[in-house]
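Per your request, structure below.
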């Protein structure tokens, strides 16, 4: 994400530099034509100062415009990223709910996460409306995967995250 923002900002700075180069070339040509002109009826220094001030003002405005464009691009990019993360988070929540709904192992993990305490096999059995033997099988699988721990020193055994 940050690389893309840096690329965009770099592109905007490149455009700014090209515009400034074009403006400088234009003003250099104007000054050269002015210096080579035969008409001397006006004060040369005043005109050159005016041209330089206009040049500085235009360059300043281009830089300000490019800063505004950069801010806008970055803000827009961040909104797009936030929106993408929000949609992804919503899909992950739906997926999690689907897993909990369809897989008893996920139901057990969800219960342990919500209860935040050690639970007996019989309590899990009642909550999931299935046999204690099934709960033992699911918990053994979760333990092999390193997702839960079984306290075998307690009687009856308890399960926890």
């Amino acid at each position: 994400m940050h690389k893309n923002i840096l690329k965009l900002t770099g592109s905007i700075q490149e455009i700014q530099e090209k515009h400034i180069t074009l403006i400088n070339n234009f003003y250099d040509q104007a000054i050269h034509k002015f210096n080579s002109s035969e008409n001397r009826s006006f004060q040369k220094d005043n005109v050159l100062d005016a041209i330089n001030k206009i040049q500085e003002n235009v360059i300043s405005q281009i830089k300000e415009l490019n800063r505004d464009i950069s801010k806008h691009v970055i803000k827009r990019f961040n909104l797009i990223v936030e929106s993408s993360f929000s949609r992804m988070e919503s899909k992950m929540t739906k997926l999690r709910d689907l897993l909990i709904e369809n897989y008893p192992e996920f139901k057990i993990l969800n219960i342990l996460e919500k209860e935040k305490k050690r639970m007996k096999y019989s309590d899990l059995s009642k909550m999931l409306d299935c046999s204690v033997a099934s709960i033992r099988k699911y918990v053994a699988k979760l333990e092999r995967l390193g997702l839960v721990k079984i306290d075998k020193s307690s009687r009856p055994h308890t399960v926890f995250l």
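The longest strand covers residues 149-151.

Regards,
D.
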